């Protein structure tokens, strides 16, 4: 087999909703979409399944505990490269139906603010594909493709 087989990055996103509001995090210090609001998220690690990765990311970013059965896949987002040389992404967006602890900024070098925003009226500085994924999830759309001709 060829060693130059196509590869895609996989990221997991947690959608925590309380009283009709979704928890967004203001990105900082990563060099990617800094200053914009996104969902708690991260890349899967080698040997890690999607739900385990999501639970790990939520613990690392928000200092909360989430059980596997509190994670329900909402939509899959397949994104093309944003810029030449970037990776393509498969984003797995999960509804998080419960958690233990109070969400807090656990990685201050990567997040400057947590915002509870109305699902129906997301802030204008929400990452564009995050807003699209949230709309798709609310509509029950299981697959969303973005950036393809």
The name CATH uses for the topology is Nucleoside Triphosphate Pyrophosphohydrolase
At CATH level 2, the architecture is Alpha-Beta Complex
Helix and strand composition category: alpha+beta
- Classify the beta-strand content into a percent band: 25-35%
Task: Assign the CATH class.
Answer: Alpha Beta
Taken together, the total number of domains comes to 1
Large-scale geometry: globular
Number of helices: 2
Order of helices and strands: EEEEHEEEHE
Q: What do the pLDDT scores average to?
A: 95
Structure in words:
The protein is an alpha+beta fold and 149 residues long. The chain has one domain (9-146): Nucleoside Triphosphate Pyrophosphohydrolase (Alpha-Beta Complex), CATH 3.90.79. It contains 2 helices and 8 strands; from the N terminus they run E-E-E-E-H-E-E-E-H-E. Strands 1, 2, 3, 4, 5, 6, 7 and 8 form an 8-stranded mixed beta sheet that branches. The longest helix has 13 residues, at 50-62. The radius of gyration is 15 Å and the shape is globular. The two termini are 30 Å apart. The relative contact order is 0.26. The model has no long low-confidence stretch (mean pLDDT 95).
């Amino acid at each position: 087999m060829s060693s130059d087989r196509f590869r895609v990055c996989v990221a997991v996103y947690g959608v925590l909703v309380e009283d009709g509001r979704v928890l967004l995090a203001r990105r900082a210090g990563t060099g990617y979409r800094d200053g914009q609001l996104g969902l708690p998220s991260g890349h899967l690690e080698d040997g890690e399944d999607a739900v385990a990765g999501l639970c790990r990311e939520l613990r690392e970013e928000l200092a909360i505990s989430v059980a596997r059965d509190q994670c329900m896949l909402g939509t899959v987002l397949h994104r093309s490269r944003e810029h030449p040389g970037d990776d393509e992404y498969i984003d797995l967006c999960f509804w998080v139906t419960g958690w233990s602890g109070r969400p807090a900024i656990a990685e201050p070098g990567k997040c400057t603010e947590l915002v509870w925003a109305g699902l129906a009226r997301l802030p204008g500085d929400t990452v564009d594909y995050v807003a699209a994924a949230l709309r798709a999830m609310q509509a029950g759309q299981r697959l969303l493709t973005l950036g393809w001709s």
